[in-house]
Design goal:
- The protein has about 150 residues and is mainly α.
- Helices cover about 65% and strands about 0% of the residues.
- It contains five helices and no strands.
């Protein structure tokens, strides 16, 4: 008598970004945060990205609405930071702060690259900062904060 057992079809491994997202979801499900903390982290991340986007522009080129948005983003960042600090949960925004450092370094790198007599050593230092930030975000599974697909 022969036995026919069905062998499960192999599946492709999940992409690294999906594994990181699952790990973050497991952390949230294992130790749920208060909704106001989740909201504060989300608002901090979004406001930081908006602030960095606007701050990278020359202030003379900002439209009045963009100038107002810059101030609003600063206020949201400060409010969110205060909520997280009061709860002793500042570690929740470590990745967002690293993303801010990355975006600032990228902006500096673009400015240096546009200068004909740019300091090559400074450019290399800025690129090193970007690489370090990217590695930290990759290790945290948060490359989406700098819009880098893995």
């Amino acid at each position: 008598m022969t036995s026919t057992t069905a062998t499960p079809a192999p599946t492709a491994p999940l992409p690294q970004s999906a594994l990181a997202a699952m790990a973050r979801l497991n952390l949230v499900l294992a130790a749920p945060l208060a909704p106001e903390l989740v909201r504060a982290v989300t608002r901090f991340e979004v406001a930081s990205a908006r602030f960095d986007e606007l701050a990278s522009k020359d202030a003379r080129d900002l439209a009045p609405a963009e100038f107002d948005a810059l101030g609003d983003a600063q206020q949201v960042i400060a409010d969110s930071f205060g909520i997280l600090a009061a709860a002793g949960q500042l570690h929740l925004i470590d990745a967002a702060q690293t993303a801010t450092r990355y975006r600032q370094a990228a902006s500096h790198c673009r400015r240096l690259s546009a200068e004909p007599a740019a300091d090559y050593d400074e450019l290399l230092c800025v690129q090193d900062e970007m690489a370090m930030c990217r590695c930290q975000l990759a290790a945290a599974g948060r490359l989406e904060l700098i819009e880098v697909a893995s």
